[in-house]
Amino acid sequence: MTSHSAWPSHGGQASALLERFGLPAIQPLVDFSTNLNPLGPPDWLGDAIAGAMVGLARYPDPSYTEPREAIARHEGVDPNQVLLTNGGAEAIFLAAGLHARGQAVIVEPSFSEYARACAAHGLQITSLPLAAPAFDLDPDRLASPLRQADVLFLCRPNNPTGTLLPWHTMERLLDSARQQGVTVVVDEAFIDFVDEPGEALTPLLARFDNLILLRSLTKLYTLPGLRLGYLLAGAQTIRRLQAGQPPWSVNHLSAALVAPLLADSDFLDCTHAWLREERPRLQSGLLSLGLEVVPSRVNFFLVRQGSGSPTGDALLRRLLQAGILARHTHNFPGLDGGWVRLALRGRADNDRLLAALTAEAAR
Ligand SMILES: Cc1ncc(COP(=O)(O)O)c(C=O)c1O
């Protein structure tokens, strides 16, 4: 019997999902619902945090000069084009705050916090739905919604679809948005999982002053408890974004880790090696079980069962009973629970997922 408690708002909320389904605690549960890197955090992190503890007795540098310079070097931009944030989540809320009480367009299905941030800042929201299974965007479809808009939010690569809008689509979109005076906020929280180089939109900052890029360090380095992200934009926009940020928003330990995290290219290489091996393996396993799988450029898959099979909820429930926590899609407009999002994990866990799905398919 399904209880009437709310769907959990994000991945990783095992007890809320169990409660939703009226199930007792299940131990152990393997978490495929949060799209974090299973290789992290990097080994050296504990020592680095211990070494940085001494700085806790002081306020952080309010302008975060050192971490901003490290990010600027890493990204090939000027330090005054960087704002350090308390995770990608704070970056989203700051970006929404720039157009408080204005009009926003959100390309859906996508991360639910854009809508929450817009609502918190009194923006009126228009959704621009992308259709399954390609979740492609024709920039011509944006012409009309952009006419009324102040800001457009989109996620690239997109959570929850794992798809990446092509670079030329982004150029066309940015161009027409600029002509209409619209700011484009592109959430690149998952860009480091794209293993082909040159996909990040950073170089477009030099051409489009209406572009704001949003990054997170919590996904790649498996640090969601630490909170660390940043914004990239033109210097003037960064000043306006900073004006809306509380002082010392990023704690000293997080700020101290920026430079060493970005310098750890071995960690990124290992992550890409894991993705190159496990992503095609899991994808073909899922496909061979008859699941519809959206081709992913990152570390998670959006899947659904064919017609005549149980709904996303039935699959989610049976996976839970098999000790696997998957992400529901009830709070992704357009998906409405029909799909399930599965993170890519280490080989043994992925095999366990495939075994559970094979058992489910044989029912
Ligand atoms: C697309 C996207 N952007 C931003 C965030 C927020 O990340 P952070 O942990 O850095 O706040 C998430 C977290 O799930 C996300 O999925």
From TrEMBL:
Entry cofactors: pyridoxal 5'-phosphate
Catalytic activity: O-phospho-L-threonine + H(+) = (R)-1-aminopropan-2-yl phosphate + CO2
Keyword Lyase found: yes
GO terms of biological process kind: cobalamin biosynthetic process; regulation of DNA-templated transcription
Presence of keyword Mitochondrion: no
Annotated ranges, domain KRAB: 184-260
Pathway: Cofactor biosynthesis; adenosylcobalamin biosynthesis
InterPro entries, per database record: Aminotransferase_I/II_large, CobD, KRAB, PyrdxlP-dep_Trfase, PyrdxlP-dep_Trfase_major, PyrdxlP-dep_Trfase_small
Keywords from the UniProt entry: Cobalamin biosynthesis, Lyase, Pyridoxal phosphate
Pfam families registered for this protein in UniProt: Aminotran_1_2
EC number: 4.1.1.81
Molecular function GO labels: pyridoxal phosphate binding; threonine-phosphate decarboxylase activity
Function: Decarboxylates L-threonine-O-3-phosphate to yield (R)-1-amino-2-propanol O-2-phosphate, the precursor for the linkage between the nucleotide loop and the corrin ring in cobalamin.
Protein name: threonine-phosphate decarboxylase
Species the sequence originates in: Halomonas chromatireducens
Lineage: Bacteria, Pseudomonadati, Pseudomonadota, Gammaproteobacteria, Oceanospirillales
